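Case study: Probable membrane transporter protein.
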Amino acid sequence: MDVYLPIANLSVNGLVIVLLGAGTGILSGLFGVGGGFLTTPLLIFYGVPPTVAAASAASQVTGASVSGVLAHRKRGGVDPQIGGVMVVGGIIGAGIGAGLFRLLQSWGQIDTVINILYVVLLGTIGGLMGRESIGTLRASRTGAPRRAARRRHHPLVASLPLRWRFYKSGLYISPLAPLILGVVVGILTMLMGVGGGFILVPAMLYILGMSAQVVVGTSLFQILFVTVATTMMHALTTRAVDIVLAGLLLIGSVTGAQIGTRLAGTAKPELLRLVLALIVLAIALRMAFGLGVRPDAVYTVIEL
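Here is what the predicted structure looks like once written out:
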């Protein structure tokens, strides 16, 4: 089932792209991540240009997030108040990221920067996630009680002014903290096509100190609106969004998100995190290898 991608200017197997989107959707429902941090590298491995992969993955993440948000909202797992603050920060960050994207694109370095960012971020996140999961699994096998980490916001967050009370998250902190977090995620979303959930979820737990019951749903809430804004900015500035590619990914991701949400309540969390960590590390190593190998085409000509 070959499908032609007009912006990427290549033919792909449509079924493979749909299945890739389904895998992304399952991750979205399981972990509260948009899944773009895996979609973009896999599309690059498949032969899609990094700029098109990043821009199109951002629009695909929107579909997976809509499905996931609706499922978590029914369970009361979304804090729209703190999520709204992060959305504002995310839109500001997306604007900054759009400027950086165009600048790097004009220098001819955007593909390299995208690959380097993925190697650094995926390697770091995968390593931390794997270490935490292995520690939890060892503790459960030996029967030794694993001391639960205290849910408390970071001292830097406590030092910020203008405190608000976020009732559903159980927080009394400055709105500047989630705003800054949203800006960082917005920049990454624009540059890398990621939803940012793989950074948002641990940051919301260990930096903001949010209640675990609303972290996943609120993360997806923020991802939903920021990826919408990012897609619009890409369409207007970089013109790298391939609507055919995004549509194929959406078909799989919307269904996958519902499956992932159901699995989240039955599967063993620490084992799932370990599997995800291994996948993330494998992709980081593959991208690092690609950065050090001489490409088939040493020179490429693009139209800006």
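For the exam, be able to explain this: The two ends are 31 Å apart (CA to CA).
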